[in-house]
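Deliverable D2.4 — example input (structure tokens):
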């Protein structure tokens, strides 16, 4: 195993140099092409920060993983830390107001049932060396799906605000009106996971498969583990997207004023005013 992993990617000065060149190239392309929401170079700084943070975080995790994997207290603390970071990251990506913490619900809604089933059936032992990578993959998938569903749902509610108001005027509840408009956009968050599952083995060999092979497992076992990960991810992401959509429909997860639809009380007042105008004009209620 050591020989295979060393041959695949030796950890030396050459690796550090290549990583630095790749990160510099990524930052330069984003800056030159101005791939930022405001057409500036803001994303270039984010790319650089993400690369440096990844290096530092992986260095710390690599040093601590041995203790965490075999410590009765270290394992739950590390899993909770992963979850907390995912919640904060998803929340900040979706909104900048105080509702960001609601992202804890869709991530948990997908991950917790999946982990409970895996532990109850014995497919994954209650050991750090197994729990950390599997739970980490599921949390990461739920986080990505939550971010995509949240951002796209809030964006479409902004663009189609008039349709939401029209649905309210026709008698739909606030939740139903928002759900009707946001649901197609939220469903787009499932596309990356679907594409990854459809093309597995044909376009890429995902990390779980390669890791199992390097660990000495047979190709059949590695394929079975990868299939399990992909199917579990689809279930986790589906639950995360559905929960995110429900939170946005109920105005629990919102965006600051000017970025999405007005708060529910304002929309209810608009519906009341519309109904009143109809009564005044002699139209149907």
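Example output (designed residues):
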């Amino acid at each position: 195993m050591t020989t295979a992993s060393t041959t695949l990617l030796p950890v030396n000065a050459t690796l550090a140099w290549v990583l630095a060149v790749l990160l510099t190239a990524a930052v330069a392309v984003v800056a030159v092409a101005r791939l930022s929401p405001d057409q500036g170079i803001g994303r270039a700084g984010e790319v650089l920060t993400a690369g440096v943070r990844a290096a530092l975080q992986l260095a710390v995790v690599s040093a601590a993983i041995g203790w965490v994997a075999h410590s009765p207290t270290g394992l739950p603390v590390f899993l909770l830390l992963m979850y907390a970071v995912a919640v904060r990251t998803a929340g900040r990506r979706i909104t900048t107001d105080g509702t960001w913490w609601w992202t804890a619900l869709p991530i948990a809604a997908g991950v917790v049932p999946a982990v409970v089933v895996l532990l109850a059936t014995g497919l994954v032992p209650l050991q750090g060396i197994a729990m950390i990578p599997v739970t980490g993959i599921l949390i990461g998938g739920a986080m990505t799906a939550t971010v995509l569903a949240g951002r796209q749902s809030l964006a479409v509610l902004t663009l189609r605000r008039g349709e939401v108001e029209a649905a309210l005027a026709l008698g739909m509840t606030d939740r139903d009106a928002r759900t009707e408009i946001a649901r197609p956009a939220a469903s787009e968050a499932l596309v990356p996971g679907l594409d990854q599952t459809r093309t597995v083995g044909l376009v890429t060999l995902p990390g779980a498969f390669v890791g199992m092979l390097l660990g000495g497992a047979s190709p059949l076992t590695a394929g079975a583990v990868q299939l399990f990960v992909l199917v579990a991810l689809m279930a986790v992401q589906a639950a995360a997207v559905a929960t995110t959509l429900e939170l946005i429909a109920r105005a629990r997860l919102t965006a600051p004023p000017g970025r999405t639809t007005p708060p529910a009380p304002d929309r209810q007042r608009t519906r009341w005013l519309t109904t009143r105008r109809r009564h005044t004009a002699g139209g149907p209620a």
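The longest helix spans residues 128-159.
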